[in-house]
Specification:
The complex is a heterodimer. Chain A is mainly alpha-helical. Chain A has helices spanning about 1-15, 65-75, 80-90, 100-110, 115-125, 130-145, 145-160, 165-175, 180-195, 200-210, 215-230, 235-245, 250-265, 275-290, 290-295, 300-305; one strand spanning about 35-40. Chain B has 47 helices and one strand. Chain B is rod-shaped. The chains are: A mainly alpha, B mainly alpha.
């Protein structure tokens, strides 16, 4: 009998441990609550100046203003102020999830992960129709090392809000790391459709295509990246490698390495050393036994490298 | 006794008659000298009389002196005796005068104006002087021609001074010596009277009856009359009655021949016949009997006398018979009014008030100017001095007297309806009678007032009101003008009994205006004004009533009516639901009210205040209503409605989604009214709301209070409160809260408390406390902590390469079925790894001879490890499935590589070696595929499980390695960047 009860206890506690905080009870949300259309926005697009204006009586501010203020504080990483904005929003529009959303962001910033999680769950309770809320919960779960749940939440978030670029970028990165290059390519592609020059997406898509064997596709993406980020020498390094290794185009590889060498001579990089580049040049020149400059003069090859 | 009294009266009367008779017959003096006295005494009747007497006295003195001179002059002559007789007569006259003076001795005017000498004269002295002269004449002049007169006067004079026996002798001497004298009847009468006075009735009859011989004598009827009384007193009433009948008959006869006579005894005789009749005959014969003896105008008096005698002897039925028979037979008799009157009094004596009233009505009927009786008599009756038969006078007397008497009697016994009714009629009759004089004196008004009182007392309020009103319109008396209209108002109110018709209300207005006209500041002015409003109020005309009440309500001092006006005005405001005004006035009037009223008014103030807020709420001004409710509670903390008000406020705040304030109000409600049945509900909702709006600190505060009052769920609320404190990083309070819950009988609560405390102590680096808590968690086998600790322990043994210990420990775990599947999977995985290590450590450097054995051993170890990994997979724990598949794949790969790279202790010939290598290649090729297949399975499982912590990348690199592909560097994937909401539309 005792043994049996202990087993039961163990099971119960196991269940309990997954729900660390209980609730005093649910509050019914009225049917006529304010309806708001919301899409996610990169915090960098929020106002900078708004959050700088401290000392305002937030109880007098309207909902729209408080949202803009909250966004501004996120951008400015003014999380103490963001906490105030969250509380004010919860007072002004208690049935809206945004007060709790900001409080989740603020708690997360303080590394109070359980609080951040509790707050975002509260926000979802208030309104479960916004992808951005699940995205935030996914972020919190990721920080809490609950990776599987984080991935599922982000996936749910982008299903609900396909324009949630950060979700796609994140999933692209995860799938890329886990060598699921098809999936990674899909997400990077979505990111680039929304933000054509998103650098991590460009990088990720190029690499994914390369590992999938789509070298031309990879070169296309790298060209776009290089044209937009001419100083990002890793793109040229990768391009050179594809010429050299995957396309067996030693001439374009050599020309690309030589251009890279010139850039490094002008401004050294911590990512790619000049020595490595010079070794590559020597290695190819040795294989070709031809002057690298002549091959570099081919206008067609150069065009691909560009 | 009756008889004796009558005798005394008669005996007193007789000497007076005799004296009256004697003096004018035997003296005739002129009286002249009046003028001087007139000047002194004036002309009024009393002084005239006195003046006359003084004149006589003066002339008599003069005459006496003159006679004495004449006596001296004519002494011895034939004139002497006449002069003596004259002198005696003068002395007797003087005695009379002297007596007169004595009788008037106490008169102030006599004492003041009469001469001293005259008043000192004694009557007796003169009479004695007269007697002495008569005696002198008798002795000196025995042949004096008027000797019978001398004897008579001598006897009479002696009789006057009480010498009765001497008088008798003188009278008898006269009868003896002068039987033919004209004075014989008078002398018989005098002797009979004296015997009669001595109660010698039979003896007296000798003298009285002797007079019968002298029918022409003036004293003849008197003799008959006195004989009747002597018979009566000697018990011979019938003979007595006969004598009286003779007296009457004699009178009737003489009246026929001589007309009315001065000394007629008929009336006295008839009157006395009543007495004698009453003793001889029944009352029923009375009218007939007296009709025979008396005239029509005499009979009434006699019968009234007879009735009076019956009444005197309480023979009321006889009285009733006599008078009623009289009235019936002589309806127009003058005395009828008195007969009714006597009957009224008789009935009243008998307490037969109904009959008395009926009789009064009969009297009233003859007293109508149109009645025959009235026409016949009233004109003459009212001319009479005594007017004893004045019906109006009698009726007024009877009705007023009896009305008062009956009124008083009824008041003493209100159950006696007959008396009450009688009093009403009596008042009615009386008032009808005297109404014509209403303006002359206040008798009518006073009687009317009394009638009103009686009617009021008899609860005949409407009529009473009418009477009082009439009094008020007639009277000029200030007090009456105050009391009567008020009485009329009160009577009307009682008559109406709160059911005011329009007519009644109109009358009330008339009465109240009358009262207020005469008494604008009267004692009841406030009450009257109040009542005016009250009627309108009762009839639902609140606006009108309100106007009256508000004027009264503001008056000072606040007497009873003012207070009632306040109450009713408040009631009207309440009915009209004018809570704002109701609140205002209740508060204002409470300021000067005494404590108990103040309390009541404040209660009304609070209720109206509350209702006003409710109306605001009904109008949909919910935010205003909520604020007002809170203000009410703040201002009226002792009100019975205070808690309800705060409760309503918080409910409205919830309704208008002012959740933050609602939650605060709910907590406030508990703090102010912790014993309210709603306190718990308020706290629960507050806690839920604070939680809902993310104010977890406030939610925890509320839950702490909730835990204190909700014993049944105390631990539940305390647990949640601690969780909120924990979330809020308030470790101090969270620790305190959880510490109380570690011993909870609720396993979930106690486990949560211990595990959260461990988290707190870990974060605050309190190792000592943490260690203690971990021991507790281990002892209680709290999962997943207990399982994780077990696994950590096995891993530690494994990491120290204490494989045997680790293996044995894992076996123990596996044998303990209380462990979770995950823990047991982990334990088996440890064993699998140990077996895998043993497999990998088994070297394949051997001699050709031992090759088979070595391979067998290596293969067996692989099988053991494989079996263990497969056991791990069987537990179905996803994470360990992936690990087991991964490690198994690597074991396969290890086996392939180990077999293909076998080295021998002594070299084999090349051909043999090539053949052997080719054989090894064939043997290991499936195993190589198995390695790839297994790691692929691991990858698939890891993908299903979303093992995105780098495990998948690791597995992919293993696969890459097996497939001879380059591996990729593992990169860290960080959490995605924060995003913010962008509003693109706000609707409702």
């Amino acid at each position: 009998m005792i043994k049996f009860s202990l087993i039961i206890t163990a099971i119960l506690l196991s269940a309990c441990s997954s729900a660390p905080t209980k609730s005093a009870g649910a509050v019914a949300i009225p049917e006529k609550a304010l309806k708001i259309s919301v899409v996610s926005m990169d915090a960098t697009q929020a106002s900078q100046s708004l959050c700088a204006n401290n000392g305002q009586d937030l109880s007098k501010k309207n909902f729209k203003y408080l949202i803009e203020l909250g966004n501004s504080c996120v951008r400015m990483q003014e999380f103490a102020r963001l906490e105030e904005v969250g509380a004010a929003l919860n007072k002004a529009e208690p049935y809206q999830p945004w007060g709790s959303y900001y409080l989740s962001l603020a708690a997360e910033a303080r590394n109070e992960i359980p609080t951040a999680k509790w707050m975002i769950e509260l926000a979802i309770k208030k309104n479960s129709s916004y992808g951005i809320l699940y995205f935030q919960k996914g972020r919190v779960m990721w920080l809490d090392k609950q990776y599987a749940e984080a991935i599922n939440l982000v996936k749910k978030a982008i299903e609900m809000d396909p324009g949630l670029v950060e979700g796609h970028l994140f999933l692209g990165q995860v799938y890329f790391r886990d060598q699921e290059f098809d999936l990674a390519s899909e997400h990077f592609y979505v990111v680039l459709k929304a933000k054509p020059y998103q650098i991590e997406a460009l990088s990720g898509l190029a690499e994914s295509r390369r590992y999938r064997g789509d070298y031309r596709g990879a070169m296309e993406v790298l060209n776009r990246a290089i044209s937009n980020y001419p100083d990002a020498i890793e793109f040229q390094w990768r391009q050179a490698q594809i010429y050299e290794t995957n396309l067996d185009d030693k001439i374009n590889a050599l020309n690309t390495y030589i251009k890279l060498k010139r850039k490094l001579l002008r401004s050294p990089s911590k990512i790619i050393s000049l020595a490595d580049v010079e070794n590559k040049i020597q290695e190819i020149e040795k294989q070709q036994r031809k002057p690298a400059v002549s091959s570099a003069k081919s206008p067609g090859k150069e065009g691909v490298g560009q | 006794m009756g008889r004796m009294l009558i005798i005394k009266i008669v005996s007193f009367m007789i000497p007076a008659l005799v004296i009256g008779l004697s003096v004018p017959v035997y003296s005739a003096e002129k009286r002249d000298d009046r003028n001087n006295l007139d000047k002194v005494l004036g002309k009024n009747s009393k002084t005239k009389e006195l003046k006359g007497e003084l004149l006589i006295t003066a002339s008599e003195e003069k005459a006496i002196k003159q006679l004495q001179k004449l006596l001296n002059k004519h002494k011895g002559t034939s004139l002497e005796v006449s002069l003596w007789f004259r002198l005696a007569e003068l002395y007797l006259r003087r005695s009379k005068t002297a007596r007169f003076f004595e009788m008037n001795r106490d008169s102030d005017s006599i004492v003041k104006f009469a001469p001293q000498k005259v008043t000192k004269l004694s009557s007796k002295k003169y009479i004695t002087q007269g007697i002495e002269i008569y005696e002198k004449i008798q002795s000196r002049f025995p042949h004096f021609r008027d000797m019978d007169l001398v004897l008579f006067n001598n006897a009479f004079a002696r009789q006057q001074i009480g010498q009765l026996e001497l008088a008798k002798n003188v009278y008898k001497k006269l009868l003896k010596l002068y039987p033919e004298s004209q004075l014989v009847p008078d002398t018989n009468l005098a002797l009979g009277e004296m015997l009669y006075d001595e109660h010698q009735y039979v003896q007296s009859l000798e003298y009285f009856n002797a007079i019968r011989k002298y029918p022409q004598s003036i004293v003849y009827p008197y003799g008959l009359y006195k004989a009747a009384w002597a018979y009566y007193n000697s018990q011979n009433t019938a003979k007595g009655l006969k004598n009286l009948e003779e007296v009457v008959a004699f009178s009737n006869q003489r009246e026929k021949t001589e007309g009315s006579h001065k000394l007629d005894l008929k009336r006295e005789a008839l009157s006395d016949m009543a007495l004698f009749f009453s003793e001889l005959y029944p009352s029923t014969k009375a009218v007939a009997y007296f009709s025979e003896h008396a005239n029509r105008d005499e009979i009434g008096v006699v019968l009234l006398k007879l009735a009076g005698l019956y009444g005197h002897h309480s023979k009321f039925p006889d009285l009733e018979i006599v008078l009623n028979n009289f009235i019936d037979k002589y309806p127009v008799a003058r005395e009828r009014s008195k007969a009714h009157y006597e009957l009224i009094n008789t009935y009243e004596t008998l307490k037969a008030r109904g009959q008395a009233v009926a009789e009064m009505r009969r009297l009233e009927s003859i007293c109508q100017p149109s009645s025959n009786w009235f026409e016949a008599h009233m004109a003459t009756i009212v001319q009479e001095k005594e007017n004893n038969y004045d019906c109006q006078k009698l009726l007024a007397n009877a009705s007023s007297t009896l009305a008062k008497k009956w009124h008083t009697a009824w008041l003493k016994n209100k159950n006696d309806q007959n008396t009450g009714d009688a009093a009403e009629v009596a008042y009615e009759i009386y008032l009808a009678l005297i109404k014509k004089d209403a303006q002359k004196d206040d008798k009518y008004v006073r009687a009317l007032y009394s009638q009103g009182d009686l009617l009021f007392q008899r609860k005949k309020y409407r009529t009473a009101s009418e009477k009082y009103y009439e009094v008020a319109t007639l009277s000029k008396d200030k007090k009456v003008l105050h009391d009567a209209p008020y009485a009329a108002i009160v009577s009307l109110e009682k008559a109406v009994d709160n059911k005011w018709s329009d007519e009644d209300e109109k009358q009330f207005q008339v009465l109240s205006q009358l009262y207020l006209k005469h008494n604008p500041k009267g004692a009841y002015a406030t009450e009257v004004r109040f009542e005016s409003g009250f009627i309108a109020y009762e009839k639902g005309r609140f606006d009108e009533a309100g106007k009256s009440f508000i004027v009264l309500a503001q008056m000072t001092p606040a007497d009873g009516k003012v207070l009632k006006a306040q109450d009713l005005y408040l009631d009207i405001l309440n009915t009209k639901k004018d809570y704002t005004q109701l609140k205002h006035f209740a508060f204002e009037w409470s300021k000067k009210a005494p404590a108990d009223r103040k309390e009541k008014l404040l209660k009304i103030y609070q209720q109206s205040y509350f209702s006003e807020i409710q109306r605001t709420e009904e109008q949909g001004k919910l935010s205003d209503a909520a604020a007002a409710y809170k203000k009410f509670t703040e201002e009226n903390q002792n009100s019975a409605l205070a808690d309800k008000s705060l409760w309503n406020a918080l409910q409205l705040e919830y309704k208008i989604n002012d959740l933050s304030n609602a939650a605060e109000s709910g907590h406030q409600f508990f703090k102010m009214y912790p014993r309210s049945p709603k306190a718990k509900e308020a706290l629960i909702k507050s806690a839920q709301t604070f939680e809902f709006i993310g104010q977890i600190k406030r939610a925890a505060d509320v839950l702490d209070d909730l835990a204190n009052i909700d014993n049944e769920n105390a631990e539940k609320w305390a647990n949640i409160a601690s969780d909120f404190r924990f979330l809020n990083q308030d470790f101090k309070k969270a620790r305190a809260g959880y510490s109380k819950l570690t011993s909870s009988k609720d396993a979930m609560i106690s486990a949560n408390a211990v595990l959260k405390l461990m988290s707190i102590e870990r974060q605050t680096n309190n190792q000592k406390a943490l260690q203690k808590l971990e021991s507790l968690a281990m002892a209680r086998r709290y999962e997943s902590f207990y399982g994780q600790k077990t696994v950590d322990w096995l891993n530690a043994l494994y990491d120290k390469k204490s494989y045997k210990s680790a293996f044995d420990a894992a076996r123990e775990v596996l044998n303990d079925k209380r462990h979770t599947a995950k823990t047991r999977a982990a334990a088996r995985y440890i064993q699998a790894k140990i077996l895998d290590s043993e497999f990998k450590e088994a070297g394949l450097k051997t001699s050709p001879e031992r090759l088979t054995l070595v391979l067998k051993i290596k293969t067996e170890k692989l099988e053991k490890a494989q079996l263990a990994f497969k056991d791990v997979i069987k537990y179905g724990e996803p994470e360990y499935i992936v690990y087991a598949l991964r490690d198994l794949s690597l074991s396969y790969d290890h086996y392939v590589k180990a077999v293909r790279n076998i080295t021998f202790t002594k070299p084999l010939p090349k051909a043999e070696m090539d053949a052997l290598s080719e054989e090894f290649e064939k043997v290991t090729l499936p195993m190589e595929d198995k390695a790839v297949e297994t790691i692929t399975q691991a990858i698939d499982n890891a993908k299903k499980l979303q093992m995105r912590d780098g495990t998948l990348a690791q597995l992919q690199n293993i696969l890459n390695s097996l497939n001879l592909k380059p591996t990729l560097n593992e990169t860290e994937v960080r959490a995605p960047a924060r995003v913010v909401p962008l509003l693109i539309g706000v609707g409702s």
